[in-house]
Every structure is written in structure tokens, then in C-alpha cells.
């Protein structure tokens, strides 16, 4: 087990500086344009693929970094550049992790390369879990997957919503109900290969922030996929369902939604994205406060402004520490006895919202315009308290964990 450290090693520093350079030179200058266009920034993704940032290799290297700091460091730098573009770059990684975590070696080898494509023909992937009536309450999911034994095929029907890259993805990973009696324990994940008939994009959402990232409904109408598209395989699923049924029988009640607890390990990554946006806004505000003069002196000479900056920096550093702690715990298999993953996401996302609002205030009228990036950063930051579990759900998970209650 790697010791917890707050110091990046030389190799990590090199990667961080390389990512920072890409974020500063390629992502940030493109941010305003793609925010206005509200379209997937394909040329930027392609650029990221060319230099190796948009690739499974890069993602896996950071993901398996034994210190746990690889992913949070990478997320912070890319999202420092711009949240919408960065989500377009890392969105595929979220789907790929679903396959890495649950897929067989053959599934990993077959599907992940098709999620990314290559630098001359980049592709993206989507992870589709949320539904119109199943957001925070994952257990009320309705999309069904039914096994057609004669053909060794699964047939999926339902509507997914809010899917990042939904409909434009080459590969979709879809979570569906295979046993409705078991709540979230009766869910399974499926690969929907490219150009599968029956999968279509529904509404594409016009959003408040992260507008360069494509978010849409995904309609599944009698989508047939081979048995080999069930992540982990049928044998493993049958064994898992049998265990869940046995537990449900013993417990004498329907198994409740335990999915919320399983996100502990992935939530710090979202916290790191929030730290990136918060740090970006703080830096703009600090620079502005030092140079903008009113009443014959820089506005930072007013305690009312300087104290805001002091609070902003303190919360950003505190958020990063929580994120790094939880990331280190996740990679080292430490039990999240106080829901430390949720804590990090809760604090970092609330910090990003607060800090970006303070940055707008410090820039005055300029902060309220699209001439300066803090306006966009403030809009972008609102997503962090919503996706991957809202702030209320994080508090619920933390509170129930502390109380020793089941998380449902
Ligand atoms: C831009 C964007 C991208 C997304 N990307 C993806 C994606 O790629 N894949 C995917 O599957 N999903 C994705 N999501 C979905 C996201 O995870 C959900 O929006 C989120 O889980 C909240 O669900 P909901 O929107 O249905 O809100 P609801 O669950 O309806 O919640 C509404 C409000 O009620 C509160 N609330 C609900 N239950 C409780 C409770 N028990 N106690 C206290 N308060 C409660 C919530 O905190 C919230 O404030 C994305 C969403 C957005 C906006």
C-alpha cells in the first residue's frame, strides 16, 4: 500500500505540467467558442488524441497510479482549462471505467479501443444509467433487459436521459433491470455496439453550463445485442442474482438500492473536476483584484476583497485535500467508514459553486459578462452539485454511514 502523500513525485509533476500546458494552450483558448456553439469540440478531442491525452493508455495509467493521485491531478488540470471541453475529453473514460471494472478481459480488449477510436478518427463513448423517473433513486429504473435464450441475445427497451455523449457515442454502456424484484441488485450493464438498430438519440439538452459537452436522451427500442455484450458474462450475473435473492429472502424484504454506496470510489474524481474549475476562477479573480484600481488603489487592498480571496483559496486547498485523501483510500482499498468519497465530492462541488460566484463578484460588471471567463466558470460549476449524486444525496450517504444505517 502506498503511503498517503501530499507531494506529487517527479513523474507525476511532469505529467501535471504537460497536462497544464495542454489545458492552457489548447483547451482554455477554445473554451468560449465551444461554450457558445454548444457542440462537441471534435477538433480539441482530436488534438488530445494526437498527444496521447485522449486514450485508454493515459487514463489507465492515471487510474492505476498506486498513490491514487493520478486521476485527481489529471482532472484538476483539464477542468482548470475548461469544464465543458474537459468533460468531452474524459466522458469516454467514465464509460470505459464501467467496462474496466465489470467486463471480462475479452470485453475490455474488444470494446474499449472502439470507445476511443484513434487520432485520425476519434470516437466517444457514453454511460447511460439515469432515466426520466430514476435520477437519485436509481432503484426505480425501468429500462428492461430480457434474455432471449434461443438466440443468446439480450433485448433492451427503455429511455435513458442525461447521457453525456448519448446518441453520438460509438459505444454505449447501458444499465438495465434484469430482475425487478431485487432493486438495484437486479441491474446489469450492457455494451451496445456501434450502429445497433433500435438505439437512437432523443432530445439533446440545451444547458446552463458545460455546454461544449453533449448531453442527450437515449431511446432503446427493441435493441438486440449478443449475449457476449452483458458485462462480466451470464454466469457471473446468475451467481450474483442468486446471492441477492438469497439475501432478500433472509432479510424478508425487497433488496433496497445499494448503488449509492458503490459510487464512493468514483466520486473524488468529480471533486477534482470541481477543484479545477474553482482554482481557475480563483486565479482570474486574484489577478484581477491585484490590477483593478478603484479609489486610487488596487481593489485587493480592501479587506472585503482580500478576505474573500483568502476564503476562496482556503476552501480550494481543503477540497483538494479531501479529494486526494479519498482517492488514496480508493486505490488502496481502504473502507470508506465515514463516506469519505462522498465527503470529498460534496465539499469540492459546493466550494466550486461558491468560489466561482465570489470570482464573479470580485470582477464586478466584467465578471457578469462573457468577456471574462468567470461567468462561464460560474455556470459550469453548477453541474458538480448535481451529477454523480446531488449534494443532498452525498449528505444522505454520509449521514447514513455515520449513523450505521443502510444506504438506500
Ligand atoms: C449535464 C449532465 C450530465 C449527466 N451525465 C450523465 C451520464 O453521463 N450518465 C448518467 O447516467 N447520468 C448523467 N447525468 C444524470 C445525473 O446523474 C442526475 O441528474 C442526478 O443523479 C440527479 O438526478 P435527477 O436529475 O433525476 O434529480 P432528482 O433525483 O429528481 O433530484 C431533484 C432534487 O431532489 C433532491 N432529492 C432527491 N432525492 C432526495 C432525498 N432522498 N433526500 C434529499 N433530497 C433529495 C435532489 O438532491 C435534487 O436537489 C447527468 C446530468 C447532467 C445534468
From TrEMBL:
Cofactor(s) in the UniProt record: FAD
Top-level division of the source organism's lineage: Bacteria
Residue ranges occupied by any Acyl-CoA dehydrogenase/oxidase N-terminal domain in the UniProt entry: 9-115
Start and end residues of each Acyl-CoA oxidase/dehydrogenase middle domain: 126-223
The Acyl-CoA dehydrogenase/oxidase C-terminal domain, residue ranges: 258-402
Coiled-coil regions listed: none
Pfam family, one: Acyl-CoA_dh_1
Keywords associated with the record: FAD, Flavoprotein, Oxidoreductase
Similarity section: Belongs to the acyl-CoA dehydrogenase family.
PANTHER family (alphabetical): ACYL-COA DEHYDROGENASE, ISOVALERYL-COA DEHYDROGENASE, MITOCHONDRIAL-RELATED
The name this protein goes by in its record: Acyl-CoA dehydrogenase
